């Protein structure tokens, strides 16, 4: 009995320590300075490939930056016309952005044959980089947020955005002080652990981490529900179980 009591005490101590650690990490996540992010009022450009990327993958980042009083804009490189639903998906994107706190005036959708919504097509890096740089300069962007080399899902259009951002960064073409933050891709198991992935996210190296509150998670789900044309049965499961609907880990280039 004494051994059992001792084990219970140790377990309680570990759980208490874990709770305090997570709480402390959450408090530090609220501070933009802790993560090296630009402060409130900064102009941030989210760069995505398709309508629904902003809600499906980046909702924690967008809501976190809005919470930090960033002026968030969206540059979407296609209308998502793979199944000839481009016009419908444009409208769904605007509705989703409104839920996430991005006004319609801050949303730019590129509907260009150079950037087709097609996982079998690699977008030309130089062309993507040229379009991206023009938007960064025109809007005097301080922070660019996009996919990393894994593209979260491995989609070639996602990876093409990373390649363009990396090229601009490596060649020193971005305006002075403009940072690039990329969304960390994780393995399949972690991808569908939802909040159970939080301890691993806290332990793993990252430059920024955004975790949604219960209210914000509901907001992210409302944003995703705006993409009605994309809500097939497996996407409903994605909304329920994907960590990307609750947690975003990001790295600076």
UniProtKB/TrEMBL annotation:
Pathway annotation from the record: Glycolipid biosynthesis; glycosylphosphatidylinositol-anchor biosynthesis
Sequence intervals crossing the membrane: none
InterPro entries: GlcNAc_PI_deacetylase-related, LmbE-like_dom_sf
Record Pfam families: PIG-L
Keyword tags: Endoplasmic reticulum, GPI-anchor biosynthesis, Hydrolase, Membrane, Transmembrane, Transmembrane helix
GO biological process: GPI anchor biosynthetic process
Record keyword Transmembrane present: yes
Subcellular localization, as worded in the UniProt entry: Endoplasmic reticulum membrane
Membrane-protein topology: Single-pass membrane protein
An annotated GO cellular component: endoplasmic reticulum membrane
Residues spanning the signal sequence: none
Keyword Phosphoprotein belongs to the record: no
Biological role stated in the UniProt entry: Catalyzes the second step of glycosylphosphatidylinositol (GPI) biosynthesis, which is the de-N-acetylation of N-acetylglucosaminyl-phosphatidylinositol.
Similarity-based family: Belongs to the PIGL family.
Protein name in UniProt: N-acetylglucosaminyl-phosphatidylinositol de-N-acetylase
Organism taxonomic ancestry: Eukaryota, Metazoa, Chordata, Craniata, Vertebrata
Gene name tied to this protein: PIGL
């Amino acid at each position: 009995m004494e051994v059992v009591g001792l084990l219970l005490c140790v377990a309680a101590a570990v759980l208490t320590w874990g709770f305090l650690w997570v709480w402390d990490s959450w408090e530090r996540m609220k501070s933009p300075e802790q993560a090296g992010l630009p402060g409130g009022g900064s102009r941030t450009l989210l760069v995505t490939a398709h309508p629904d990327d902003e809600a499906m993958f980046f909702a924690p980042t967008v809501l976190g930056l809005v919470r930090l009083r960033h002026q968030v804009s969206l540059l979407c490189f296609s209308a998502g016309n793979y199944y000839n639903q481009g016009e419908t998906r444009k409208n769904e994107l605007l509705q989703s952005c409104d839920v996430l706190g991005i006004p319609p005036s801050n949303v730019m959708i590129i509907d260009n044959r150079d950037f087709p919504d097609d996982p079998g097509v690699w977008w030309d890096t130089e062309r993507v980089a040229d379009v991206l740089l023009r938007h960064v300069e025109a809007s005097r962007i301080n922070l660019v947020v996009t996919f990393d080399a894994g593209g979260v899902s491995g989609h070639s259009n996602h990876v093409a955005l990373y390649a363009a951002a990396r090229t601009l960064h490596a060649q020193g073409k971005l305006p002075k002080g403009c940072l690039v933050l990329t969304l960390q891709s994780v393995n399949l198991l972690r991808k569908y652990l939802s909040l159970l992935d939080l301890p691993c996210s806290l332990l793993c190296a990252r430059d920024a981490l955004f975790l949604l509150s219960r209210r914000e998670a509901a907001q992210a789900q409302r944003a995703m529900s705006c993409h009605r044309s994309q809500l097939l049965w497996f996407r409903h499961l994605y909304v329920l179980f994907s960590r990307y609907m609750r947690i975003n880990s990001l790295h600076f280039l």
